[in-house]
Amino acid sequence: MSKLIPSNPNLEIVGEIKQIVETTRKNVATAVNSELLNAYWNIGRLIADQSSAFNDTTARNFILNLSKSLTNEFGRGFSRSNLFNMRNFYLNYPDVQTVSGHLTWSHYCELLAVSDVDARKFYEKESLNSRWSVRELSRQIDAALFERLLLADSNQRKQKLIELAREGHVIDKAEDIVKDPYVLEFLGLQEHKIKKEKGLEKKLMEHIEDFLLELGRGFMFVGSQQRVTINNIHYKIDLVFYNKILKAYVLIDLKIGKFRAENAGQMNSYINYYKTEVNSPDDSPPIGIILCADKDAIAAEYALGGLENHIFASKYTLLLPNKEQLIKQVEYVLAQDEDDLIAEREESALFSNEDSQDGQG
């Protein structure tokens, strides 16, 4: 007697086969991409070796003629700009083993446009950590994420520079997920067009994927206008997210005007509600961000200082920051940090000599 064959296959085996197929496809794509990057690196090596003795004009002409020959031979993919990128690829990544097959050639072309080595390393690491698309990588470079993160940390910026370049954006405490300012240029708005918080919230909902990218790694959208009921009075939190890295709810209150001290008290109530009514036992304490068009740093410090809960006030801007000015600011701050370090060492040496002289006396 023949066995009956079920008309519907077991869902478990379908899921397992699907996982095998998808994993295989990813592995094949990564292998193909790695071979392509390896080929471009070797082409870049040949070009760099051949043109190393040329001056700039001769090197440009050499690459232009090579581009014409290779295009006639193979078709697209060997434009002059692409050959320049291949040469720069080899020069900036002299060890091909450091090249990641999880990033595409287009990713590396974007990275090569970043002249600062530390910033380039940061964007490369974050592209891998956050799995940025090429468009997302380009947007973060244009928005000067590296410089903003570096300037946001007021202590030990030299150490922060090394950390960002080596590890990317490390997130292990509430302060690490907060930016100032947040760049919302993707909304396509101008300052004077925003009349109410509701309008800003609506635009953010229309561009939620872009906003999640700006918020950073680990954020998941929970909802907007989330109800909080205290003593039978209903309040609404503009935006609620969950950060899976910190395992914490992140509550965002939108303000189209300037930060005010009373904003802190309102957010503090929301956080206390979430700690008591919403948090699971394994959740970390909620985090509050008051996102405003402007803020007075001193007023924010007095309003937020001493609070047990994690509450932060940040500005938002609807325009991309001026990267050149940010880079100059970073250079200035790092130079100041270096001067402070030298002064501390000199002061330490002075006291050490005085102690030595006292001991001899």
Can you give me a brief rundown of this structure?
The protein is of the alpha/beta class. Helix 1 packs across helix 3.
What does this structure look like?
With 361 residues, this protein is α/β, with parallel strands linked by helices. Helix content is 57%, strand content 14%. The protein is built from 13 helices and six strands. It has a six-stranded mixed sheet, with helices on both faces.
Order of helices and strands: HHHHHHHHEHHEEEHEHEH
Q: Into which percentage range does the β-strand content fall?
A: 5-15%
Q: Based on DSSP secondary structure assignment, what is the total number of beta strands? A: 6
Class inferred from helices and paired strands: alpha/beta
Query: Can you give the helix content as a percent range?
Result: 55-70%
Describe the largest sheet.
Answer: 6 strands, mixed
- The spatial strand order of the largest sheet comes to 1-6-5-4-3-2
Q: Number of helix segments?
A: 13
Poorly predicted tracts of residues:
none
Distance between the termini: 109 Å
Mean pLDDT value: 87
Q: What gross morphology would you assign?
A: globular
Radius of gyration: 27 Å
